[in-house]
Amino acid sequence: MKVSAVLGVDIGTSSSKGVLVDVDGRVLRSSTRAHEVSRPRPGWVEMDADVWWQEFVSLTRDLLAPGDVEVVAVGVSGMGPCVLLTDAANVPLRPAILYGVDTRSTDQIAQLNERFGADEILRRCGSALSSQAAGAKVAWVAENEPDLYQRARRLFMPSSWLAVKLTDEYVLDHHSASQCTPLYDTDDHDWYHPWAAEIAPGVVLPPLRWPGDVAGRVTAEAAAVTGLPAGVPVITGTIDAWSEAISVGAQGVGDLMLMYGTTMFLVHTVAARVTDPSLWGTVGALPGTRNLAGGLATSGAITAWLRELFGSPDYPDLLRLAEASGPGARGLLMLPYFAGERTPILDPQARGILAGLTVSHDRGDLYRAALEATGLGVRHNIETIEASGGDIRRVVAVGGGTQGGLWTQIVSDVTGRAQVIPAQTIGASYGAAFLAAQTGWTVSIEAWNPVTEVCEPRAEFAADYDELYGLYRELYTSSKRVAHALAARQVRFLGAARTDASKEQRNEGVAS
Questions:
Q1: Are strands 184-185 and 190-191 parallel, antiparallel or unpaired?
Q2: Which residues form the Carbohydrate kinase FGGY N-terminal domain (predicted)?
Q3: DSSP secondary-structure letter at 421?
């Protein structure tokens, strides 16, 4: 007899994950597909949407292969906010432009602020324009790729792309829409059509639903490709960080979710609408909720980069070396701005810095400094959230970075905040599965995923980390001009390198 289960799939920055979960919240099977984003220029981060669908199909067929599970609903989520423009037949016109790690829309942000007013955008949309704003990236395509844009008719994100491929329904969730600044009005919970008509002419913006609402049902065509039963419901889905918050029950007023992944997301649930120009004010993933959110542009991306530089040792070995290094990484301090930075400095031209290096420092020190840099960035965001009117009462950790214990311990030590860690930290795919389960079952996340661990800050390290945090804040301010100048040089260097490559290709063509 087959076991009834829900399928949850999340399209992340560095991998796609799928899980099968039974009615009691037990993960029956999980599967992962690693991928890479494209970085064609400094500040540009893209991905081919075909990869999203191919990996969904591969994950689903892998998970269903034993034939012992009957899928009764499908949940989807994905990184965001992203901008995938297609024609009217849902054919992608270019690779998707990813969320705040892609910083290309600086000029469009300035133009939109001038056109509509920065204060008015913040008031209506809940967030100031930044590299996170999907609306500004639509404007970038319209301005820089006008011939392509003339064919644009629809706007997708990873979750809505999976939904349309599975159901033929063109929808988007309210939370994702609220990150399409300045296209969405967070008070009216609807597209703001006067601005949308000017910023995204010709694009028919999708009908809006809540993440747990049913988008549609698996079509016969999608069933044949994926192996899913035709007719099962597919939820609308949402952005991965908000699905992660659902997966650990971090949706109550006062909760703050910390998502440990390729990037770091912070999602704080507030009692009423709160805005701050250095944070993101959004509607929540659940009806009636509101969030104040932030994010580091790089966190796990830095540790993965270091691991590659070190010759790809196992992560447990690097964590052991980092633990031996001790608090303060033997006098090292890192700014984690390797892809610019999102909140709270909103500086796409910021760059990573490793200060205090000597020839006596080793791999463990560098790895420790990277972990501490994330903690320092989280502390900066927490202080900004609370200064803006947030009220953080509970911190919940989720994501792959919670494994091993050291990273979460460092963040607690640096911030002085305890973190609760649930039994299941697999993240967004589990949250998507939970939302899908609610289409047919009566379930609670507290029963599915109870808290099993609390990471307490260690008081003996508080003074050292207070001093390091002061230096961290000072280092950005004092190095900002140099970092911006180097960012400009990187753009020029890449342009020169591309010109040389083009000449070489032309010469090869003549020689052949």
A1: antiparallel
A2: 6-244
A3: E
pLDDT score, position 496:
57
Q: Is the peptide bond before 81 cis (omega within 30 degrees of 0)?
A: yes
Nearest-angstrom CA–CA distance, 329 and 172: 44
As beta bridge partners, residue 34 has 15
The CATH number of 3-241 is 3.30.420.40
- Alpha-helix residue ranges (DSSP H) falling in 95-145: 106-116, 118-125, 134-144
CB proximity list for 311: less than 8 A, separation 6 or greater: none
- DSSP 8-state assignment for residue 341: B
Q: Do domains 3-241 and 249-423+458-473 have the same CATH topology?
A: yes
CB 17 within 8 A of CB 426: yes
> What residues of the chain score a pLDDT lower than 70?
495-512
Helix, strand, coil share of the chain (percent; to 5): 40, 20, 35
pLDDT (tens digit, 9 = 90+) per residue, 464-481? 999 999 999 999 999 999
247 to 163, 240, 242, 434, 450: CA distances (angstroms): 20, 10, 9, 7, 10
Asked if 51 and 34 count as a contact pair (C-beta separation under 8 A), the reply is no
- 22-46, pLDDT tens digit by residue? 999 999 999 999 999 999 998 899 9
Beta strands in 195-297 (DSSP E): 208-209, 214-217, 233-235, 238-239, 255-260, 264-270, 280-283, 290-296
Report the sign of the C-alpha dihedral through residues 215, 219, 225, 229, in that order.
positive
- The structural architecture, per CATH, of the domain 249-423+458-473 is 2-Layer Sandwich (3.30)
In contact, 141 and 105? CB cutoff 8 Å: no
- Spatial distance between the Cα atoms of 1 and 56, rounded to a whole number of angstroms: 26
Give, in degrees to the nearest 5, the angle at Cα 367 between 362 and 372: 125
Radius of gyration of the chain (CA): 22
pTM for this predicted structure:
0.90
CB neighbours of 501 closer than 8 A, spacing ≥ 6? none
Contact 295, 258 (CB under 8 A): no
- What are the domain boundaries of the chain? 3-241, 249-423+458-473
Nearest CA among 317, 312, 182, 159 for reference residue 241 = 159
**Whole-angstrom Cα distance, residue 139 to residue 97?**
12
Q: Are 175 and 212 in contact (CB under 8 A)?
A: no
User: Cα torsion for 373, 379, 384, 387, to the nearest 10°?
Assistant: -160
Tell how strand 3-11 and strand 69-78 pair up: parallel
Alpha carbon distance 494, 41 (integer Å): 7
CA separation for the pair 227, 220 (Å, rounded): 10
> What's the pLDDT at 497?
54
Query: Three-class SS of residue 156?
Result: strand
CA distances (Å), 66 to each of 17, 28, 107, 170, 196, in order?
18, 12, 52, 32, 47
